[in-house]
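Notes continue from the previous slide.

Worked example: a multi-chain complex. Inputs as given:
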Amino acid sequence: MAEKHDILILPNQGDSSIVLLETHSIIAARGRKDAASLMVRKLALTSPESVTALADHGDADEQFSLGKKYYSGEGVPQDDAQAALWFRKAAELGHADAQYFLGLLYDKGEGVPQDYAEAAVWHRKAAEQGHVHSQANLAYQYYFGQGVEQDYSEAFLFCRRAAEQGLMWAQRVLGVMYEDGEGVPQDHAQAAVWYREAAHQGSAEAEENLAVLFQKLCNAAERGDANAQWSLGELYSKGDGTPKDSAQAAAWYRKAADQGNAEGQLRLGLLYGRGQGVPQNYAQAEIWFRKAAEQGNARAEFNLGMLYYNGQGVPQDDTQAEMWFRKAAEQGYENAKSKLRVLEEPVIRWAVCVKNLETGKMVLITPDMTVDTDDPRFGDEVHIVPVVKDQKDPDWLSFGVHDFVRDCACHPKIEPRARGRTIISHRAAVN
Amino acid sequence: MSGEIVRKLTPEEEELLRKREELAGVRGALAERELELADLRAQLKSFEGRYLRQVGILYAELDDWEAKIAGIEASLKPSATASQRAQETRKQAEETHEAAHGEASKARDFQPSADLKSLFREAAKRVHPDFAKDEADRQLRTRLMAQANVAYSQGNAEVLQRILDEFGNLPESVQGEGVGAELVRIIRQIHQARKNIAAIEIELSSLRASEIAQLKQDAEAAQQEGRDLLAELAADVRKRIVDAKKKHETLAVELKKHGRET
């Protein structure tokens, strides 16, 4: 038997040979796919007819790359007509790059009869799929009415989409459209923003446009044009075309605001709120927000609401806050809508509770709670606790601390969410 | 009258004879299927090894360059999508590397001789666990069958021969079993073997549907036309590697200009 047992002691690595090969199916599948597209390309060299049948069943990617090869003459004899044929096949299947290339061929009349209208058709298809160069080309065609009816609004729309995707050309042109009020209400501040974006990418023309715009605004502002004063404030506040300078910004905003310019009033209020270029002062912020809000400026309405909501510069007043949020929300101001939702919810707010080491009692820090964790009076024990607030009862903070803690402990939903030294604003937590 | 005295078989004995014949036929069929399965596995494994060595490692290299490119792009133009892309391409590169350089890539070429095939067929017929007389016997046979499979995939005729020499006559009937008991045992064995044949059929067809089997088929079809599919694939991937290297170089120069680190 000993001999018989020998035979059973074979090298064991063989066992792995019985394990199946499925684990490698990804790399094998890749080989198959590449081999298939290789075959299509090969066939294309020898007989374009036979490949038609194959690629007709193939995917748009394959057709597109075949088109590109014909277009550039890479590996095949350069042939614009063949390129157009393959681009069209892929384009009809919705391939964005192919649509763009087909648009280009029509634009230049390569491989197809020159036709701006057809170019616009294909560029639009690609543009709507987010193809940035097609967006730019389409914007150009609308701007000059090339193959389409001249239409600044359409040009602006597509130009903005391309600009937002970071295309330098589109950013500069968008600046021009804002500056000249083409397809969009004139807005020098926005013009400056987009000139700066393009200039950052190295557009010398945008740089020059920005400098000219800045000079133009300076002149107009000096002459007392409120709009120009506000725009100049914007340029100073963001550092567009001039070094950033909050004090200068505040000065120009004030000139515009004094003339009753709502945007200027809003911006001045914001600077007061943040203490930028002027000493921080909520009372001043409130004055300017109110002036702008009374002119129906949505953002000012919202910010006035925030002052009431936080009790900054005015006594805390959720009713007032709600009123102003509602006004802003009615104008479609998103932040105001979400604040309204917060106000309307049966409120669970988050509060920070710390132990005062001197008295040994838990202290509720609220409403604008930031805990100075280095305050030696407080120990390590910091709780963040939800406080159920009855909206009808604005005195929710007048609970005795012990009542509060007891109430929290009784509430079924309540458990301390976090422990340890934490700085938190309950408002931030609510949002 | 021949004067010969013939014992008349009882109906059970007649049935037993028939079943013995049937069993012999099923054994042959099962052995044939086992051979087919062992052969397909070995063929695929060896093809896979060749594919990984010839093409897989190039994919690994290509993916590595792509990952490097995505890494540089992410630091040239940092964004959430760019860094996610860099991570994903790096992960893919690692997976490809693992697949291309793993154990499977070491599989040797496999060309079984007619001799090896018939040795395996015979061994499968003799030692298959479906024909064990009891549990201990079944365990021994299971091990032997596994050995035979390994030996086949390694082209090791010697081991198959030894299995046959030493275990070729494993007793199957139990001493003093009696006609009735033997009949029951054989019927069970036939049933078991048929079930096994069906299971092997399923495994065969799922193996044939696997990506590697399909690729092998493509390669064989190409060979019919005088083409070498794996060589073509390899050449194509090599070209793409050259392109990727160029792109990497350009990006690396750009990165240097911007003074950022990879």
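Summary box: Chain A touches chain B through 28 residues (CB under 8 Å). Chain A has a mean pLDDT of 76.
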